[in-house]
């Protein structure tokens, strides 16, 4: 990948996240943020993005909000984090108010449900792209791949509580990464 682009202005961060917040639906937000911050604008590299995704998933709150704050903070500290947060949430806040008022009138139209199904399918597709990239990166390290498989088995197959799985696998994963970085340093 080429060198990162120069840091954006606070206004650029706000406007990009405003557009993401207004134009994205459901779980596809992570895919949009990846496209904008990594592929198009090169604000952060893929490794930083995946670290941000991992961190945003273990922190309380909405993953996409946590990820936006992470990226904004990487660009401009607290002001960047605030710009990303406000950009991501302010547009949808006002849009939801307007759409809630209009939805009552259009929900009985025959094509509204089909349109919502299409939007949901697109969001799932974007999530799948990000998940596939994360899984591909995890295969580079046996410990990371083991953590991925253990998490999938614990949550997806055994239906264990995500916080419990993270509380067990997270420290083991950090310990494995520490040993790996220590071995590289020697």
Offer a few descriptive terms:
186 residues, mainly alpha, 7 helices, 0% strand
What does this 3D model show about the protein?
It is a single chain. The protein is mostly helical and 186 residues long. The protein has 2 domains: 129 residues, no CATH class; 46 residues, no CATH class.
N-to-C SSE string, H for helix and E for strand:
HHHHHHH
Total number of β-strand segments? 0
Task: Describe the global form.
Answer: globular
- Distance linking N and C termini: 28 Å
Q: What's the helical proportion of residues?
A: over 70%
Low-confidence stretches: none
Rounded Rg: 19 Å
The main β sheet shows up as: none
* Strand residue percentage: under 5%
Average pLDDT for all residues: 87
Structural class, by secondary structure, is mainly alpha
**Number of structural units classed as domains:** 2
Number of helices: 7
What's the layout of helices and strands?
Layout: H1 10-23, H2 29-40, H3 46-58, H4 63-106, H5 110-138, H6 142-157, H7 162-185
Can you summarize this structure?
The protein is mainly alpha-helical. It contains seven helices and no strands. The mean pLDDT is 87.
